[in-house]
Specification:
Number of helices: 5
Strand content: 15-25%
Number of strands: 4
Helix content: 55-70%
Distance between the termini: 146 Å
Number of domains: 2
Order of helices and strands: HEEEEHHHH
Shape: rod-shaped
Radius of gyration: 46 Å
């Protein structure tokens, strides 16, 4: 059977560590444990102190700043802290998930773009190779004989031509 007093603790039950009465001041104080990355800020009525901080969590003590603050106010403030930080964490999780999805989408776009680019490059060069291969095969294979003559061969031929010319002149002189 659920008692009405337990209903007050339900929203913060997994974070609530201790409720104690400060007999010196006559008011109640609450200690809660929250994840280390959660934020908490005191207001004009409630003071919040970090009692202990670990790598993954921190212990927070909340107490009234004056005698008009009731335990119900502390519980409500704790509830607001928990609900607000849970909403922030959910938004952050959702954002991170969206970013992961967008990252995958961008990676796919990147991959697809470069795949198409590579295909276009291959097609473009295939056309050039095909054009060269079909139209210029004969020119590439059969070069004119003059182009095949080395420089030394050309010089020898010129010398022979000069010698032949000189021989022809000698004959005509005789």
């Amino acid at each position: 059977m659920n008692k009405p007093v337990n209903n007050k603790f339900e929203p913060i039950s997994e974070y609530l560590l201790k409720i104690e009465r400060n007999t010196e001041n006559g008011w109640y104080e609450i200690e809660i444990g929250i994840p280390n990355n959660w934020k908490i800020k005191e207001n004009d009525d409630i003071e919040c102190m970090v009692m202990k901080e670990l790598d993954f969590a921190k212990l927070i003590k909340m107490k009234p700043k004056h005698e008009n603050v009731l335990i119900d106010d502390l519980l409500e403030f704790s509830k607001i802290v928990v609900e607000t930080n849970k909403k922030i964490a959910e938004k952050e999780e959702k954002f991170i998930e969206e970013m992961k999805n967008k990252k995958v989408e961008l990676e796919n776009m990147f991959s697809e773009f470069y795949k198409k680019l590579e295909e276009e490059q291959e097609k473009a060069f295939e056309g050039v190779v095909n054009e060269l291969g079909q139209d210029d095969d004969e020119d590439i294979v059969e070069k004119p004989k003059d182009n095949n003559i080395s420089k030394n061969d050309k010089e020898k031929k010129e010398i022979e031509n000069v010698n032949d010319f000189q021989d022809d002149e000698e004959i005509s002189d005789k």
